[in-house]
């Protein structure tokens, strides 16, 4: 019994394609498991300077090691995290920061709008590229036209007279 050459090539291509590693760049949902981006690490345990200043423990209450992303973001942007009170709006000390960041207008539904536009964009791109003989990095392929070349941008700023930091040479030079 002879096995046709085309059958050997097909089996070989399937075997090679099964050996690839997609890594974290595969942008499709891979299953119904938990979302690893919803898991927040807790703050490191630390010993207080004075044990008498600790609040009384309450069941279901907060802990000093609980994650506070809003307060952490305010502190990272230069505001006072201690002034952030839930439901009280923006502290007066941070009004200048908020007005500077919203000087070009604020769209309240910007996240939902961007998610919808990106879903439409991905749907259009996926229609044209569903069949591939060899595995490719779909993220790089889909968003290639929206990616900036950092070396080209750096050169543009230098030609415009803007002081730029030194950059490492492009790989391969």
Q: What percentage of the residues does DSSP assign to strands (E)?
A: under 5%
Q: Classify the helix fraction into a percent range.
A: 25-40%
Report the mean per-residue pLDDT as an integer: 76
| Total count of strands | 0
For the sheet with most strands, the description reads: none
Sum up the overall morphology in one term: extended
Q: What's the total helix number? A: 6
| SSE pattern | HHHHHH
In angstroms, what separates the terminal alpha carbons?
A: 54 Å
Helix-strand makeup class: mainly alpha
Rg from Cα: 26 Å
Uncertain segments are none
Provide tags for this entry.
173 residues; mainly alpha; 6 helices; 0% strand; extended
Task: Provide a descriptive summary of the structure in words.
It is a single chain. This protein is mainly α. Helices cover 36% and strands 0% of the residues. It contains six helices and no strands.
Produce a short descriptive summary.
With 173 residues, the protein is mainly alpha-helical. It has helices spanning 5-17, 69-76, 95-101, 110-128, 138-142, 150-159.
Task: Write the SSE topology.
Blueprint: H1 5-17, H2 69-76, H3 95-101, H4 110-128, H5 138-142, H6 150-159
